[in-house]
Amino acid sequence: MKGRAPEPSLRDLAGWCWDARRWIVSGWCAGMALALLWGLAAVPQYRITMIVGPTTRTGTPDISALFPENASYALEYVLRSFGSGDSSDFMRFEAIARGPAVSSRLMAAEEFQAGWSLDRRWRWSRGDDFFHPERLSAYLNKRVRLEPVGHTPMRRLTYHHADPAFGRILLRALYDVTDGYIREEIKNKTAERIGWLRGAMQKTADPDHRRMLTGLLMEQEQVAMILALNEPYAAVIAEPPFVSAKPVWPDARMIFPALGLIGGFIGFMGYAASGRGRFALSGALQPA
């Protein structure tokens, strides 16, 4: 009758590692050499960050002007609660910042062409050439992260690139083009509304009708005034683009220990698979 073999002890593990010490050291050296080659072949990447937030202005007409002065307080409260501030424009800013409409305008700028070619992870690789807005939009959605800042309405844009100067320019241009795109569209629509309201006021003689049209016209002229001031419309820069002090990739503090441990473990497993050495458990029961 054979006794049951005991569980391996810490002493057994230490003995196995001592027997396999040459294999483990060889694997560790191979892992460190691979980490060194990794660091030499990788192109350092810097992290560029910018924080944007919603503007503080009202941009759409107050529809309560459509109702008479004797409207109930509850009705006026409900109507005013539906009046949009800057949230809808800022949500649109988030939605289209990395979309094809903004990408097509970025592609038209020649100063970005050299920056795209420098965007590479390895020294032997080549950067992308974007000939279609859809490809650039896919690149921006992949490389530019848009995430909330805590529980605030602000958003943090993060981008990684080998050239910090290009990263700053890209994030700032992304903001300028997106806000300018929304501003231009709102400006055109506001001009059309003002023209229609002025024409409607000339055609009507009813005092109540003219009062409602006057209220709507004042709202649209307020929007036109804001757009004429050349101030941020949909979003405002809370913190300009800034660059990390050191490259964030590759991280030598992670790569060297990780590859060294992996190499040592592979060396130990290789020693075990070779069938060399002694792997007898201390205190193993012998057959009776």
Automatic annotation (TrEMBL):
Q: Membrane-spanning regions, if any?
A: 20-41, 254-273
Classify the source by domain of life: Bacteria
What does the UniProt keyword field contain? Membrane, Transmembrane, Transmembrane helix
Please report the name of this protein according to its UniProt entry: Polysaccharide chain length determinant N-terminal domain-containing protein
